[in-house]
Structures are given as structure tokens and as C-alpha cells.
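Hypothesis: this fold can be encoded by more than one sequence.
Test: take the C-alpha cells below, design a sequence, compare later.
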């Protein structure tokens, strides 16, 4: 059913009682009704509803010789629309169309005639059924989807006419099985959320409902809101043998590792990564939680051997944690820097192998996250079978790094749930420490609860009123679709379609390409509207020649596109081994999704005494006197010029997130 809903863009029709060759199955009403009930239970467990349930009889008659024949009397065919067991999810507006009133009057006039033409439920009356199933892409239908066993038990009680007391997992229905009086479908949540007809069609919520007390009002929740305002982005960094991919695979699939790479294999992208066990690209993976903090299982409930896809996790989740798997090897350090710079991370997980002391890469990752102002959470991995003295040595070295002046974090070991609540609001000064094992599962429950309790740090929903800005991180050419760009919506909103004109660029000459955003996807879900704070994909209408001009680091804007080759940055030289920075010094610059070489065109000293150091700013002997030299501890305002092509930099982006390759960093 999931496949059919995806292929039908959220809607599919089932014909029950029809063979594969199109012949009538010649089954009675009871058998067809039971098959329809099972299909409706499956649809309900997948956050879908049955819009229409038609029962059809008298299409087959028996001939004089007892052989079945197709009836030629079309007027004698009985077609009756029955109410779905769990409601059809439709809402009627307060102002009813006059045409609909006329239709209701016509139905009342014909009711006397149609009494004789009703579905016969006795044996011997051959029946078939048509079910129209519609996926509801919103949490109003079911914030915490009910299992198939509970659905089957509930539907059986509805068909038998028995009544049960409603609880948090019961399914709402009235005596007719159509929902409540105003045509809404109440979810299994105790909040009593209502589903509007517009949200059924577009997946967007427009209504408000009152809670049981009748005083407070709650806004309904949609998948779009879940993937923006309740999406916590966490960067996972650490040394090459720390087990980053294994931890992410264990958290997202809800299955323990076998110690031989089973968990990391399920999330790795390239063959060489699987063979070597080393991650070389930055990838993101969704981990979902229900409203009560229970993690979404990584395996499909119906297809036990299949892992849930991103769209299935997004539809079932009330809260999402996006885990960004970054490279740990030293030769992929620039890839890791770009992942942290463009990832818009709320928090970071620093993974340390408990069996070995931290390396210089661990120190680089700590400095990187703290330079961006990202709170850190330290996770010790592989504690199963780890000697006590090795564990003690590793913790002492890590705690020493955290207490260093350039980091300034106080380690806080998490041993119970109360410790999570203690440090939840103090991550700017504390560094929570977890001991975990992906083989035995030790410490993973505490880590999941910590991830669920983390508050949203970046408030991109406050930037919805700004001009639309989409940061391009990757480019694809999809057959039958065309050019597709993936990235992050940094500001504003966009409704895609034939009239959605946007500008993509800048190209190598600084110009922008005018095109149309045809469609959009978020978490592999087709949507007509994207908003700030979401990771999305846009399908652009470009010719083959213009497709060649697309590259990573571009932006998609709605209006007023501008580009530049120069920018000013305040930098502070933190550390360096014999490195001196002067005019014409070339550095590799990371600004959000932009990464490019740049030259120092002009240097202006701001403060001569930083971090207690008094470096010499004079030029080396024998050089011109007009040059200024920067050494560790120097703070200066530098004008950079990009070496290859212009880029689009909006005001304030430099202060939001940027990094320049060591040994110095913009403030």
C-alpha cells in the first residue's frame, strides 16, 4: 500500500472481489466486507484514510443452465456507499455550497425509490468493493500511530456494534462510523485535534481546536512544522575509529551492532566507504520521536526486513533529530569543516574511542565546534570490553581538553535521567558525557532521552518574513524531471509551481539564471510549499546548456540577486606553527555553503593584545615597511578577495557561520 500511495501521489483505489484477469471473484458480502476491513486497518496504520467505500451487487446473474452470466440490466446493478470504519477525514465548511444542498434534496427525493435497491448481506449475492485510500500528510490524524493489532481489535468491535471506553489509543468514531458531528476526524491523541479538508489535500494545517478544558487553544501540527521548528540538527564528529557511523546506524535503525560493521553498512553511501569503513562524505539521517519521547522504530511494522525510509519516519514523528555523519580522517578535514559550516547544527556529538586516548583530530573537532559556538556533547564509545585503566586515561585526557581556556567547558557525567534535566539548559557551560556501547546497548537509552530533550537553538522560523534564500549544497540530474538542487532553506518561504519564478546563481561571470521552481520535496515527501529551517530539494526548469552552469555553493533567490568578489571579516589568529599572515596570504574560506580560496587584500589591526599575547606586527627584516604581519593572538579586520568566481553573500551571513582554514578564524 505504501508503494501504491507513493505512485499515486497520495491516493490509490483498491478493487476487492475482482481477479487479476478482470473477472468477478463471485464472493458474498461477508467475505468482501472482511477484506475491506483489513485493508482499512492497514491504511489507518500508515496515516491514511478511506475516502469512499462502495459495495456493488447484481452484476452477475445465474443463467438457466446454472452458469454465471454478466447482467445486461444496468439499472438493476446496486451501488451503495458505506461509511468507512474509522471516518473519511473530510470536513465541511460552515458555508455550504447551494449545489451541495440541491444534491442532498435530490437524494432525499430518491430515498423512497432506492429503499428496495439495498445491498443484500445474505450468502449467494455476489459482491465486489471499491476502496479509495488517501494519505493524510499531517499529525492530526494520528500523532502516535496505533499498531495493526489494536486497529483490528477496534474495527471488530465497531462492526459487531459493541461499545468500548475511549482511552489514549482508541480510535474515534460515532454511531455511524463517520467521525464527529462536524465532519472532522479526531486523532488518537488526548488533545482532540481536528483535521481540516484543506490539510487533507495539501498537507498543511489551517484550523485551531480547543483542548478538553475548553480554555486553551492548540494549533494543529503538520509534517512541514515538524521538519522545521521541531527538527534538531546534530553534527556527529570524532576521530576515524570513534564509531560515528555505527552509532548513527544503531540510533536510526533501533538495532544493535554485531561488532563487524552491520550498523554502519546500513547508512553508508559509497562502496569504498563500506569496504574501508571510513566515511568520506557528509550525510544526514533522520531519527524520529513520538510525542511521549519514544523513538520511532527503524524497521517497518509490516515489512519486517525493510528499514523505514525518511518519509515514513517523518510522517510518524512528532519530533525529529537530524544526525549529520561527518568524516573523521585527517585527509577529509576540509569536508568536515564544510559539513559543520553549512549544516546549521544546533548541537554536536564529539565521539571518543574509550579504548584509546583522544588524538589531535579530537582536539581539532572540539576547537571547530566551539569556534562556531555549537554546544558539545561528549560520547565515549566501545566501552564493552574496555579495560578500566584505558577508560580512566581517556576520560582524564578529554576532561583536560574540555577545561582548556580555548574550550572552557565543564564536563558533566550523565548517569541517570535526572542528570539530563539538570544539564539541559546549561549546555553553554557544561559538556554532558555519556558512556555507550553499540554492541550491548549500554547508555543508548540515556543518549536517546538526551537527544529528545534538547531544545531548539536556531530559530529559523523567525526568518520566514525575510526574502527567500535557498543554499544549494548538491546538484542532481533526474531522468524525466531535469535539474534538481538540494540544500537548506535559510530564510523566507516559497510556493512552487508554474508561476514560481526564481533566480539561481551566481555563475562564473556573476550573473543569475532566471528559472521556475517546478516542484519540491522535503524528506522525500512531495510538497507545494517550503519554509525556512527545512532541508529540501527543488526541481528547476533549465535547458541542457544552462544545467552545465549549476554548481555547489550557489543560492536560489526570489528577487534582488547580487554577487560579490570581496568581503570584510574580523579574524583572530588562534594557533599556528611558524605561520605568519600578511597581505596576499591565501586561505580556504568556508561561509555557510560557500567554500573557495581567497586572498588577503588588505589588513587593518584592531587590537594588539589578544589572549594575553603581544605579537609583533612589523614586517620581517628586508621587507617593505607597509606590510602588516599577523601571528597567533592577533586580531585584525581583513578584506578578502575570492580567487576564482564571485559568490552571493547576504548581510549578516559572515556573523552567522563561517570558518577559514587554520591557523586563523573570523570572529
Amino acid at each position: 500500500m505504501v508503494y501504491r500511495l507513493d505512485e499515486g501521489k497520495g491516493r490509490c483505489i483498491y478493487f476487492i472481489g475482482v481477479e487479476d484477469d478482470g473477472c468477478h471473484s463471485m464472493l458474498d458480502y461477508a467475505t468482501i466486507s472482511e477484506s475491506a476491513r483489513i485493508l482499512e486497518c492497514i491504511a489507518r496504520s500508515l496515516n491514511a484514510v478511506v475516502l469512499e467505500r462502495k459495495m456493488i451487487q447484481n452484476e452477475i446473474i445465474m443463467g438457466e443452465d446454472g452458469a454465471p452470466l454478466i447482467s445486461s440490466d444496468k439499472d438493476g446493478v446496486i451501488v451503495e456507499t458505506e461509511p468507512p470504519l474509522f471516518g473519511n477525514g473530510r470536513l465541511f465548511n460552515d458555508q455550504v455550497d447551494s449545489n451541495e444542498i440541491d444534491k442532498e434534496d435530490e437524494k432525499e427525493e430518491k430515498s423512497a425509490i432506492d429503499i428496495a435497491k439495498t445491498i443484500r448481506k445474505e450468502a449467494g449475492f455476489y459482491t465486489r468493493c471499491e476502496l479509495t485510500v488517501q494519505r493524510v500528510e499531517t499529525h492530526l490524524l494520528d500523532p502516535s500511530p496505533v499498531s495493526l493489532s489494536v486497529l483490528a481489535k477496534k474495527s471488530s468491535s465497531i462492526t459487531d456494534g459493541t461499545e468500548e471506553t475511549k482511552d489514549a489509543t482508541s480510535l474515534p468514531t460515532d454511531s455511524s462510523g463517520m467521525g464527529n458531528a462536524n465532519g472532522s476526524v479526531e486523532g488518537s491523541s488526548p488533545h482532540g485535534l481536528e483535521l481540516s479538508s484543506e490539510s487533507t489535500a495539501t498537507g498543511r494545517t489551517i484550523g485551531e481546536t480547543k483542548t478538553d478544558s475548553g480554555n486553551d487553544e492548540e494549533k494543529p501540527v503538520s509534517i512541514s512544522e515538524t521538519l522545521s521548528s521541531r527538527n534538531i540538527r546534530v553534527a556527529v564528529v570524532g576521530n576515524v575509529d570513534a564509531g560515528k557511523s555505527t552509532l548513527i546506524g544503531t540510533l536510526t535503525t533501533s538495532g544493535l551492532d554485531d561488532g563487524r560493521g552491520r550498523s554502519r553498512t546500513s547508512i553508508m553511501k559509497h562502496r569504498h566507504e563500506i569496504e574501508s569503513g571510513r566515511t568520506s562524505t557528509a550525510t544526514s539521517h533522520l531519527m524520529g520521536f513520538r510525542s511521549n519521547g519514544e523513538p520511532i522504530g527503524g524497521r517497518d511494522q509490516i515489512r519486517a526486513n525493510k528499514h523505514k525510509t525518511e518519509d515514513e519516519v517523518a510522517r510518524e514523528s512528532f519530533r525529529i533529530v537530524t544526525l549529520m555523519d561527518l568524516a573523521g580522517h585527517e585527509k577529509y578535514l576540509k569536508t568536515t569543516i564544510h559539513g559543520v559550516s553549512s549544516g546549521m547544527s544546533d548541537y554536536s556529538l564529539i565521539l571518543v574511542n574509550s579504548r584509546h586516548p583522544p588524538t589531535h583530530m579530537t582536539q581539532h573537532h572540539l576547537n571547530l565546534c566551539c569556534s562556531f559556538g555549537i554546544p558539545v556533547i561528549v560520547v565515549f564509545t566501545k566501552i564493552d570490553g574496555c579495560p578500566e585503566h584505558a577508560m580512566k586515561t581517556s576520560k582524564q585526557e578529554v576532561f583536560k581538553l574540555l577545561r582548556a581556556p580555548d574550550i572552557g567547558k565543564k564536563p558533566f557525567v550523565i548517569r541517570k535521567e535526572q542528570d539530563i534535566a539538570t544539564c539541559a539548559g546549561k549546555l553553554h557551560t557544561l559538556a554532558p558525557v555519556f558512556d555507550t556501547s553499540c554492541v550491548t546497548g549500554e547508555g543508548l537509552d540515556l543518549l536517546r532521552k538526551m537527544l529528545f530533550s534538547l531544545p531548539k537553538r536556531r530559530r529559523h522560523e523567525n526568518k520566514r518574513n525575510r526574502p527567500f534564500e535557498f543554499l544549494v549544497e548538491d546538484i542532481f540530474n533526474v531522468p524525466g524531471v531535469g535539474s534538481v538542487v538540494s540544500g537548506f532553506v535559510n530564510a523566507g518561504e516559497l510556493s512552487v509551481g508554474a508561476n514560481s519564478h526564481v533566480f539561481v546563481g551566481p555563475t562564473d561571470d556573476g550573473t543569475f539564471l532566471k528559472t521556475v521552481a517546478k516542484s519540491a520535496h522535503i524528506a522525500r515527501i512531495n510538497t507545494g510549499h517550503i519554509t525556512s529551517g527545512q532541508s529540501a530539494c527543488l526541481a528547476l526548469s533549465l535547458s541542457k546548456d544552462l544545467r552545465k552552469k549549476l554548481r555547489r555553493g550557489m543560492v536560489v533567490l526570489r528577487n534582488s540577486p547580487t554577487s560579490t568578489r570581496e568581503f570584510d571579516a574580523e579574524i583572530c589568529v588562534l594557533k599556528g606553527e611558524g605561520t605568519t599572515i600578511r597581505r596576499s596570504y591565501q586561505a580556504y574560506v568556508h561561509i555557510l555553503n560557500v567554500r573557495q580560496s581567497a586572498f588577503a587584500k588588505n589588513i587593518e589591526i584592531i587590537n594588539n593584545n589578544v589572549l594575553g599575547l603581544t605579537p609583533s606586527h612589523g614586517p620581517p627584516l628586508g621587507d617593505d615597511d607597509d606590510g602588516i604581519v599577523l601571528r597567533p593572538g592577533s586580531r585584525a579586520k581583513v578584506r578578502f578577495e575570492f580567487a576564482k568566481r564571485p559568490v552571493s553573500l547576504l548581510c549578516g551571513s559572515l556573523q552567522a557561520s563561517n570558518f577559514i582554514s587554520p591557523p586563523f578564524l573570523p570572529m
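The radius of gyration is 30 Å. The longest strand covers residues 594-607.
Hypothesis status: open.
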